[in-house]
Design a protein that fits this description.
The chain is of the alpha+beta class. It folds into 2 domains: 327 residues, Outer membrane efflux proteins (OEP); 112 residues, no CATH class. The protein has 9 helices and 11 strands. The radius of gyration is 44 Å and the shape is elongated.
Length: 489
């Protein structure tokens, strides 16, 4: 029920307050913050776009080797005027001879149109399989990185929420300490007026009061910083105030042993899967580089139809006749003419390309891809070591936090009794103010240590979920003293 409530209330509250100063903060539980953040995170949106980009690259790799069908067209028009009877290099029809006589003249107009289809089909290309494998591994890398980003986003939101919880819990600790130090300063001042206390008592009480004021101001600042960071992770507007509704309480204990946690972190970690797919992609690129030295065979099919229209709008001929050596000119003739026709053609061609020498480009490309594949293997080993160390660190912190919570709680209870006794003894003049100051300072330290231990317990649980995978909701059950995290690994 938490998610529907959040989705129905939070956007309405945000939309209602846009454009005006916000006064009521948006109170979220940890579960609501996780649900909202996993929907609106900019990091997750970026990883989703990376997956889409890798899928588009995979589509390009497939399309590269598919048949290509092209429509081609060619159209020309030319007009030539000539008085010599011979026209050379006429577009589309070449040379043309006309019998014009001595003073003849002709105008030739020619129109040509061709339409055709070209089919280009790759028959043999040894780069096809490695290129498509590299693209497929790229998609798998992006998907694994998206899963890893979901884990990291979840951890970032949860750890920031826990930091805000810790700062929220520290504020009342400092407020109680400040109230007690204020009372102590008032009592010391009253006793000094009666001449029953030294001036150093009021000075020490005032120093304790100022230290408590500094601690309260720092806790308030840390709360504001943590809430602002949480709002950025949730992609909320800058003017939207935020508040945490869950109080600082110890969550469920980590149920796995150290050995089980390590095994799970190696087998179910998207970061390792992404690195492994990157290594496989580099191996495919090695084969792709080597394929550059192998032959390729392609088939080209073409067919088309052409039409030609030839028009002679002007054809002036001056004929002559010769009798016994005498030549007489006959009347000029103007006989325009025109003609048209069409033809079709088709054909096929097989092309073979065998690289003979490329200056060592293919060899060096294959060597580079091989080195990168070896580096990917080293990166996998380094990542396994880093994950193992993180699991051990979080597990040790989780186990230590259980004892720290119990010890800090017991110390806080004893400190409260100690402060009450010391205050009564100081008012009665039995003990100096130094004893009361020490008791008050120890109480404040114990309360802060208790809150820090609970925060460390919850944070280490979140860290183990980051490294090993989520096992159950973070607020599902209270910590168990006999759980695997409180025992040996």
């Amino acid at each position: 029920m938490a998610l529907p409530l959040l989705l129905s209330v939070a956007p309405a509250a945000i939309a209602q307050n846009q454009g005006q100063t916000r006064t009521v903060p948006l109170r979220l539980s940890l579960r609501q913050a996780l649900d909202l953040g996993l929907q609106q995170s900019l990091s997750l949106r970026s990883s989703s776009l990376s997956v889409a980009e890798s899928q588009a690259l995979q589509g390009l790799a497939k399309a590269r080797f598919l048949p290509r069908l092209d429509l081609v067209a060619l159209g020309t028009y030319a007009q030539v005027g000539s008085s010599v009877g011979f026209i050379s290099n006429l577009p589309a029809i070449g040379d043309l001879n006309l019998s014009l006589g001595g003073d003849g003249y002709a105008v030739v107009q020619n129109s040509f149109l061709n339409l055709g289809l070209l089919l280009n089909l790759p028959l043999l290309d040894f780069s096809r399989a490695p290129l498509q494998q590299a693209a497929r591994y790229g998609v798998q890398v992006a998907e694994a990185e998206q899963s890893e980003q979901q884990r990291r986003t979840r951890f970032d939101i949860e750890s920031t929420y826990l930091s805000a919880q810790l700062a929220e819990a520290q504020i009342p600790v400092w407020e109680r300490s400040l109230a007690l130090s204020t009372t102590l300063l008032r009592d010391a001042t009253a006793i000094r007026r009666q001449g029953l206390a030294a001036r150093i008592d009021t000075l020490q009480a005032d120093a304790l009061l100022q230290a408590d004021r500094q601690g309260l101001a720092e806790a308030q600042a840390q709360r504001q910083i943590a809430l602002s960071a949480l709002a950025r992770l949730l992609n909320l507007p800058p003017e939207q105030p935020l508040a945490v509704s869950d109080s600082l309480q110890p969550g469920a204990a980590w149920p796995l042993t150290l050995a089980q946690s390590l095994e799970r972190s190696w087998q179910q970690r998207p970061a390792l899967q992404a690195l492994e797919k990157q290594r496989q992609a580099q191996q495919a690129k090695v084969q792709l580089a080597r394929a550059g030295r192998l032959p390729t065979v392609g088939l080209l099919l073409g067919a088309g139809i052409s039409g030609d229209w030839l028009n002679l709008p002007v054809l002036n001929v001056n004929p002559s006749v010769g009798v016994n050596g005498d030549t007489s000119n006959l009347p000029s003739l103007n006989t325009p003419a025109s003609g048209s026709g069409s033809f079709y053609d088709w054909g096929a061609a097989i092309s073979l390309r065998q690289p003979l020498f490329d200056g060592g480009l293919s060899r060096e490309s294959a060597a580079l891809a091989q080195r990168r594949a070896e580096q990917s293997q080293v990166a996998i080993d380094q990542a396994r070591q880093a994950i193992s160390q993180n699991v051990i660190t979080w597990f040790a912190s989780h186990r230590a936090a259980a004892t720290q919570m119990q010890a800090a709680a017991a110390a806080a209870r004893a400190g409260e009794e100690s402060v009450r006794d010391a205050l009564l003894r100081y008012r009665a003049g039995i003990t100096p103010i130094t004893e009361l100051l020490l008791a008050q300072r120890n109480l404040q330290v114990s309360r802060s240590a208790e809150a820090a231990a609970i925060h460390r317990w919850n944070l280490s649980r979140a860290g183990l979920e980051l490294e090993s995978g989520q096992l159950q909701p973070p607020d599902a059950a209270p910590p168990s003293p006999g759980s695997a995290a409180t025992q040996g690994g």
